[in-house]
Specification:
The chain is an all-beta fold. It has no helices and 8 strands. It has strands at 2-10, 17-25, 28-32, 52-57, 72-76, 80-87, 95-97, 100-102.
C-alpha cells in the first residue's frame, strides 16, 4: 500500500480543524480509515484524533462517489482518493497511516473543486 498526501486545507470551525486529501494506491482490500491518526503525547492511542466525515472521491477529486461516511473502504487496485477532516492536527508531527508515517506540509488554499465538501462539527 502506498499513501500520498495531496493537500492539507484549513477549515473554518470553532475548534482547530483541517481537511486532508490523500491518494491510496497499490492496494487491494479494505482500507481502515480509523487507522489514520496522530500521536498525542501523554494520551493512550484510543484517545488520539482520527478522521471525521471521511469521503471517497472520484479520480479527479470533484465529487463524492459513495455518498456516505465509511470507516472502512475497499480498494480494488486502482488509486483511491480520500478526504477527511482532522481536528487538532499538529503540522510538526507525522500523520500515522496504515502504510506508515507521512510528513505533513503546510496548509494551502482549498481548491475550488472541493467546494462541495461542507464541514459539519461533531456533536
Amino acid at each position: 500500500m502506498r499513501i500520498e498526501l495531496l493537500g492539507i486545507y484549513a477549515v473554518e470551525a470553532s475548534e482547530p480543524c483541517h481537511l486532508l486529501e490523500l491518494m491510496v494506491s497499490e492496494h487491494v482490500g479494505k482500507v481502515d480509515i480509523g487507522a489514520f491518526t496522530q500521536e498525542q503525547a501523554g494520551q493512550p492511542r484510543p484517545n488520539w484524533q482520527v478522521p471525521w466525515h471521511e469521503r471517497v472521491l472520484n479520480a479527479e477529486g470533484t465529487m463524492d462517489v459513495l455518498g456516505r461516511f465509511s470507516r472502512k473502504v475497499v480498494a480494488d487496485g486502482n488509486p483511491l482518493r480520500l478526504v477527511f477532516y482532522f481536528h487538532y492536527l499538529d503540522l510538526d508531527k507525522p500523520l500515522i497511516t496504515p502504510a506508515g508515517e507521512i510528513a505533513l506540509q503546510r496548509p494551502q488554499e482549498r481548491p475550488p473543486r472541493l467546494a462541495f465538501l461542507k464541514y459539519d462539527p461533531p456533536d
